[in-house]
Amino acid sequence: MKKGLLIIYSGPSGVGKSTILSKVLKEKDLNLAFSVSMTTRKPRDGEKDGKDYFFVEKEEFEKAIENDEFLEYASYVDNYYGTPKAYVDSKRSKGKNVILEIDVQGGLQVIEKCPDAISLFIEPPSIEILKNRLIGRGTDEISVIEKRLKQVKREIKTAKSYKYHIINDDLDKAVNEVIEIIKKEMN
After folding, report:
1. Domain ranges of the chain
2. In the 8-state DSSP scheme, what is residue 25?
3. pLDDT per residue over 91-146, tens digit each?
4. Could you confirm whether domain 6-186 is CATH 3.40.50.300?
5. What is the largest CA-CA distance in the chain?
6. Which of 31, 42, 78, 143 is the most buried (most CB within 10 A)?
7. Cα–Cα distance between 164 and 178 in angstroms, integer?
8. 101: left (phi > 0), else alpha (psi -120 to 50), else beta?
């Protein structure tokens, strides 16, 4: 059996990553498996261990760090988050194409460790359009949006290491681009 692809999928907050990915994951012929991350944070209502995250205690996570069991990991707001190598390797060895929806810093760690990975970066058509989208959501104060936009500019600069860049100026077009890239890489 042919080993599955490892697909790194990143982009700034508010760019439409999750919306695009939800449509891409419905494409059965792509044979995709969504990577489940490990975290030390407590489950939220409705979240299931092994489906949404692998929920573990801090000590267990730190032991996994010591044993080099992650493709990447980070600490964020007093909790750890990471991508377990064993889970990804297990899915890939069964021929599944594993997709990691991951922040840029984590993506760069995986690109470095796994040169065979396919890396996709979703970009906004412009910073101004992204700003309008974030304002339109109505979920954040303008000061928070301004901080996010500074982060977006940094992420776009560091995303040069990603092989593919998809501009989300049209949802259907972006979805089709991601699908076509994965199909091309499968062959």
Report:
1. 6-186
2. T
3. 999 999 999 999 888 899 999 999 999 999 999 999 999 898 888 887 888 888 88
4. yes
5. 51
6. 31
7. 9
8. beta
